[in-house]
Write a structure and sequence with these properties.
Number of helices: 7
Radius of gyration: 19 Å
Helix content: 40-55%
Number of strands: 5
Shape: globular
Strand content: 5-15%
Structural class: alpha+beta
Order of helices and strands: HHEEEHHEHEHH
Number of domains: 2
Strand order of the largest sheet: 1-2-3-5-4
Largest sheet: 5 strands, antiparallel
Length: 233
């Protein structure tokens, strides 16, 4: 696979405990009292992982984008008050992404989602704009891409990855699936694939870096497929 190989750990129990306790105390007062843990433990650890992983991902996706800061590769912890009135003010997970293209939310990404007691490593998009959805359906229902999609589905099943996203019960009206593979993927309104693991000693070890990178590498064909979908929308 080439490139750097990090033999160090990144995330600590103190960082994970922060999110466990935030879940129990999701209010502005508790966050203000514990803001120093977020600023001085969680964020620096996330930044170090982003810098190292971003450099390694450059080996397989030279154009990959990442930025070790909040609203870059780190999603902000505050929820949008405009759409979360009356709800808890903070996200109880750490979200990290490396993305294609200019806009991080409108392009395929590699991501690490840490939400105790689990963490998720994967590839995909959490939303398809109307034009991207139309492009996705066109590519899925083109026999040229059937072998690629078959391989993507096989890799997911072989490695026990989860294929997620909003899914219809049937193929959209007006579209006739060319085969079973197309029929399977045409039902998705957006799609992402990830691996789910419990946060345990492995997570806190130096093995986490290669473990998450290997998942990104395994799902590279899926990333490239989505990139082609977006680039040709």
């Amino acid at each position: 696979m080439g490139g750097i190989c990090m033999a160090k750990s990144y995330f600590t129990k103190e960082a994970v405990n922060f999110y466990e306790n935030l879940k129990k105390n999701n209010n502005k007062e508790w966050f203000a009292e514990n803001r120093n843990i977020y600023d001085n433990v969680v964020i620096p650890q996330a930044k170090e992982y982003i810098i190292d992983m971003g450099q390694k991902l450059k080996n397989i996706v030279p154009s990959i984008n990442y930025s070790p800061k909040i609203d870059g590769s780190i999603f902000r912890i505050h929820k949008d008050a405009r759409i979360n009135k009356g709800k808890t003010p903070f996200k109880t997970h750490l979200g990290i992404i490396f993305w294609a293209g200019k806009e991080r939310l409108l392009n395929p990404c590699f991501y690490l989602h840490i939400e105790p007691p689990f963490y998720y490593t994967g590839v995909g998009m959490a939303k398809f704009e109307k034009d991207i959805l139309a492009s996705f359906r066109y590519f899925v229902n083109n026999k040229k891409y059937t072998p690629v999609l078959k391989d993507i589905k096989n890799v997911a099943e072989k490695n026990y990855y989860n294929i997620n996203g909003e899914k219809l019960k049937n193929v959209p009206k007006g579209i006739e699936a060319i085969n079973e593979t197309a029929e399977y993927f045409l039902k998705y309104k957006y799609i992402y694939i990830n691996d789910e693991m419990p946060i345990n000693n492995y997570f806190y070890s130096e093995k986490l870096f290669e473990y998450t990178y290997n998942i990104f590498h395994n799902l590279l064909p899926f990333f490239n497929f989505l990139k082609e979908v977006v680039d040709n929308k």
